[in-house]
Amino acid sequence: MLEAAQLGLLGILAWPAIGYLFLGIFLGIVFAIIPGLSGLTGMAILLPFTFGLMPYEAMALLMGMFAVTTTADTIPAVLLGVPGTAGSQATIMDGYPMAKKGEAARAFGAAYTVSAFGGLVGALCLVISIPVLSPLVLAFGSPEFCMLGILGLTMVASLSGNSILRGILVALLAMFFSMIGYAPQAGIPRFWLDWPYLLEGLHLVPAVLGLFAIPELVELAVRKGSLSEVPNMGKGILDGVRDALRHWWVALRCSLMGVYIGLIPGLGASIVDWFAYAHVVQSSKNKEKFGKGDVRGLIAPESANNAMKGGALIPTVAFGIPGSASMAILLGGLLIHGVYPGPDILESRLDVLFSIIWALSLSNVIASILLMALTSQIAKVTTLRGSILIPIIVVMIFMGAWMATQDIGDLIVLVFFGVLGYLMKRWGWPRPPVALGLILGPFVERYLDLSVSVFGWSWLGRPIVVGLLIAVVATIVVAVRRQQSFDRSSIVEE
Amino acid sequence: MIVGCLNVGSNANLMADPFYQGKRLTFMVDYSAGGPTDIECRLYIRHLRRHLPGKPTLVVRNRPGAGGVLAMNWLYERARRDGTVAGCQTASPMYMEWYVGDPQSVGLRANMAEIIPVMFTPVVSVGVVRKVLPPGIEIKQPEDILKAKGWIAGGFREDSTKDLKFRTLLDLVGADYKYATGYPGAADLLAAFMRREVDYVDGSSPFYMTRVKPVVVDGGQAYPIWYDSWVNISEMEPAYKSEDFVKKLTGKQPSGPLWQLFQISRAYRMILFPPGVPQQAVEALRAAFRSLGSDPQFLAEYQKIVGVQANFLTKQQDLRDALAPLEGVTPEVRELRFKYTAQKR
Fold it and tell me: Which of A479, A440, A494, A490 is nearest to A165 (CA)?
C-alpha cells in the first residue's frame, strides 16, 4: 500500500498531470462561483477531454475540478446570498449575514481553512477505510436509509428558529411539492398538471435559488446602499483562520459527518450542509446568534461539504456504486481508462486510487491557499453599490436556474419559489425546512416503500434502524423541550 | 406508418459538396452525462467525424428527464430540421409508449411515426441471480432457479422497459419470485444485491462487464442466467441466450403474448432525426455509421467499453425489422402490458 501511495503521488506531481490538476482547480473555481454551474456540470464537460489522457492525468483533471467546487462556492454564498452550488445552501444562513456586518474576509478565512481541513479529513478517511470498505458500505440498506432520512427530517426542528410548528408545516408543504412527478416505484405521474417539465419533479437548483437568493436581492434593492451594512471591511482573513482553529472540534465533527453522509448514495452535497448546520445549532449552548452571522454556522457546513467528497469515493471505488452524481462521472472516467471498481482498483490498480486521493487532498489545500490570497480583493465586492450588484446578481440567479435543464420551467419555478421565499421571510416563516423537505421527501418515500416491500414491517427491528429511531425520538424530545423553554422565557419577559 | 418514415433518404443523391461541410452537428442525449447512454454516445461521436464527409464539428448535449420523454419532445418540437441536430437516445421506450401504450399519460408529444431513424444498435442485457437462492438452492445451472421459491428480483419502476423485459422472461419460465421496485439506478440495484436485499439484478452489457461480473460473479456470489443478444456471446456464459433460456427451462420454443411482450421490450440505442430533415443529411449520417461500424479503431474501443461487438442497423430493412413487432402488437399483448405496468389509460 505504501508503494502504491508513493507511485500515486509521483504520478500526480509529474508533468503534465500537475498541470492538469491546476487546470482542474481553476475550472472548478470558475464553475463554483457561477450559480447553476456545479462540479457535476464541469466534470461532464471535462470527461470527453480525458479520453486521450493517461489515467493519472485524467484523474488529476477531474479531481482538481471536483474537489474545489465546495470551497469556491462560498464566494457567492457569502457575498451575494446566492449558493454557488448545492453544497453551499446552508453557508448562506450565517455567511451572508457576516458579509452584511462587514466580516466577509473573516468568513472567507474561516471557510477556506475548514474546507481544506474537511477535504483532508475526507481523504484520510478514505485511506483508512480501504481495508474495511466492504462491511462499511454494506452495513446500510434501504431500511437504514429510510430511517436516516427521517432523522434528517427531524432536523427541521433545529432549522425552524423559534417556532417548530411553523418549521414542521413548511417541511410538510415541501414534501408535498417533492411528490410532483413520477412516483419512485410506479410509472404514475403525480400532480404534473399535464406539463411534461413537471414529470421529473421540481428541480432543486431553481427552487433553492428562488427561495434564498431572490428575497435577499429584494431586500438589497429596497435597502439601497451597498451589500455591507457597515462602511469598513471589519475583521480580516486571519481572524477567520483563528475562528476555524478555535472551533476545531466543530470542524472535525462536521467533517466526519460529511464523510459518513457521503458514503450513502443519493444524499450528497445538497443535504450534507444542512445536516451539519442543523447539528451545530442543536449541539451548541449559545444559539442566539445563529442565522445572524455566527461563524460556527459557516464552519459546520463548509467542513462537511468538502469531507463528503472523500466519503462519496468509498462506495464508488469499492463497488462501482457512485456516492453522488459527480462520482458517476468519475466512474465513467475510470472505466474508460480500463480501471474497474472493486478488486481491480483495490488490488492491482491501487496506485490509481492513491492518485485520486492525492489529487483530492492537494486540490483542497491549493484551492484554499489561492482563494485566501484573493480574499481581500474579493471581499471588496461587499462595498459596491446595490445598483451595480443587483443586475449582476439577477443575471447569475436566472442563469443558474436555467442551467438545470434549459427549460422555461426552470425560470417559472425560480420565480414561484422566489415569491414564496420573499413572503416567508417577510412573515417570519423558516425557509431551510423547505430545502430539507424537497430533498428528503423523495428519499424517504422511496426507501420506505422498498423497506416494506422487501422486508415487511420487520425492517423496524434491524439494529441500526433501532439506533437511528432512538436518535429521532431524542431529537424530537430535545426540540420540544427547547421550544417549551423558549415559550416560558417569552411569557416571563412579557 | 413506420415504412413511411424509413423511406426518407431512399432516393437520395449525395451532393457534390458534402452536406456537412462547414457545419456543426449536435447530438442530444436523453440521459445524464456519465451514464451508459451518454458514454456510448460520446464514444460514437469521438470516432464519427472521420467518417462524415465535410468533417463537421460534433457536439454532445444532455437533456435528461422523465425517462427520455423530455429529450424526445424537444427533438420533435424544437430541434432544428436542417440536419444539424440529431438525437442519440435509448428511445425504444418512446416507441413502445407510442405504439402500444398511452403516450398522453406520460406527456409524450412526439409523433414517433414521424421521427426519422438513422441508426439502431441493440442493447445487450444480462440477468444474474444469487448463487444460493431460498430455500437454500445452489444455482449450478440456470434451470435451478425453478427449484427456488420467494426470491426477490429488484427493479427500477413498473413501467420501465428494462423491468418489463426480465419480468416477462421470468414469468414465461414460471419462476417463483417477488418483484421489489423503486431502486433509482443499476448501481443501487447492485448495492442492494450485495447487501442481500435482492437476489436478482440485470443490466446492459457495459454494466455487467465492468461492475457486475468483476464484483459479484467472479467473486462467487452471483450466477448469470440469461442474456439477450442478436448473437451468441461466449463472455456471458454460462448464461443462456434468451430464446434458449425459455426453451431449456420450459421445454418449448418461446411464443405467445408474454414472449411478444418480451420482444417489444428490447432496448436499442438510437440515432434519430426530427421530421423534415433533408434527405442528404439522413443518407450522409447513415453512411457514416455504416463506415464507423467497420472501423477497427472504433470497434476495439467499443468492445472494451461496451463489452460486446458493435452491431449498427442502418439499412432500411433492418430498421424496419426492428420496429415491425410494435406494429404487429395484438390487443392481448397491449392489455398485458397495461397490466404489468399498472399504467392508467
Answer: A479
